[in-house]
Write a structure and sequence with these properties.
single chain; about 450 residues; alpha+beta; Ubiquitin-like (UB roll); Creatine Kinase, Chain A, domain 2; 10-stranded mixed β-sheet; 7-stranded mixed β-sheet; 15 helices; about 35% helix
Length: about 450
Amino acid sequence: MAVGREEFTARAEADGIEFFFAMFVDMHGKPCAKLIPAASIDLMLDGGAGFAGFAAGPLGQTPADPDIIGMPDLSSYTPVPWQPGLAVVQCDPHVDGEPWPYAPRVILKRALARLAERGMTYMTGVEAEYMLVRRTAAGGIELADPLDTASAPCYDVKALTRMFPFLTTVSRHMNSLGWTNYANDHEDGNGQFEQNFAYADALTTADRLIFFRYMVHTLAHEAGMAATFMPKPFANLTGNGLHVHSSLWDDGGGELFADEADPRGLGLSPLAYQFAAGLIQHASAATAVTCPTVNSYKRMGVGAPTSGATWAPAYATYGGNNRTQMLRIPEGGRIENRGCDGSANPYLAFSVMLASGLDGIDRSLDPGEPNVDNLFQVDAATVAARGIEAMPPTLLHAVERLTEDDVLREALGRCPDRDYIDYFAEIKRAEFGAYHAAVSGWEIERYLTLY
C-alpha cells in the first residue's frame, strides 16, 4: 500500500525518529545504507540518498559510473525496535533518474508490476533458519550454547529455555512491528533456530526478511554471539534453509491456489498445479539464484548429519506433506519450495520463482501425480528411471543451467550493456573459481603424503 509523504513524516515524528537508514541490498543480499538525520529528511525525500555503487557490492557499476541514488519507498518504513530514534526505509536504486536494472529490488518490483497486469498478486511466506555461534580463539566457530549437544535436538525445550532471552526479544520486536510472529522453535541442527512471521505480498516479505536478518545479526552480536544464515556452517549438522511458501491471489483478495475439490486430495487448484510444474521445470536453473553460494551445495543432496536429518531436496519433485520433496504441499492453497537456502537474496529468489511458476501456467504444464516416496531412501537408478531430475551438484553446474534458461533470462531482465543473468553468472563463476583455487584442509589430509 502506497504511503504519502505527509503520512510518512507524521508517523516518523510520532515515533520519535531522529535518524533513518536509507537502505538497499546488493546481489548477495548484503544491506547497505546511509544514516540520514531526520532534520535532513526532506533532502532524501526530494532527491534520494547518493551512493558510489561500485563500492557497495555487485551492482553492475565501475568507478567511472554515476552515483546510485537510493529513492526511498515510504511504504517500507520500519522503526528499529531495539534502537529508539532510528528507522529503516528500503530504497530503489536509480541512476540518471531511472530505476537501475542491476538492483535486486528493482528486478522484483518489475516482475510484480507485470504480474499486476494479469490481475494477480504474489504472496510469499518464509521460514528463515539460522544458527547461533561464537568465534573460537583458533579462528573457527563453535555453537554459542555448549550444552546443545543432543542427537535429536529439534524442539528441545531445554535448549529453547537457554536461548529464551534472545528468542523472546526477537519475537517481541517482530510483534511490535506488526509482523505477527506465530512460532519460535529449535530446529533440527544443534544451535539452530527458526522464528516465523506471517506471510504478505512478495515485496513486503522480501523487505521484512532483509530486516529480520539484520535484526538477528545485530541482537546476537549485542548478546556476545554471532548469528549465521549460511547454508552449511557445520559439516556434521543440518544446514540452514529458507523455505518459501507461494500463492497467487486475484485483485479482489481471492485465493487462486485453493480448491477443496482437488481430485488429488492436496487442496490445490489447477492453476496451482501448473505453477508447481513450472517450479519443477526450471528448478535446476533457478537453484543458482535460490541457492547462490558454493556452500549451498554442501547442504543439498547429502546424507543425514550427526544431528537431526537432511531436509534439503535432492530432486526436483513435488508431494503432499512430505519433506523429502523439493515442493511440499503442507495444506491447500500454498506451495512450499524447499529448494531455497539462507544465502538467497529474496528479491532475486522471488523473481525467478514467480517467473518459473508463471511459465508453468502459461504453458498449462502438469506436474503429474504427487510423489509419496521418501526420496532419500530411493536408489539413484530408480529415480532416474522415473525421469526425475537431480538438483545441480555444485554452484557452477547450476549457473550453467541458469544461463541456458530463456524464461529466467527474460525475468531477470536486460541491463544497459548485457542481460542481468550474464552478470549474475559472471560474479558466481568468479566466486566458484576463487573457492576452487583455495587448498582445503581436506585436500592436505587426503593427498599430502599419498603421492
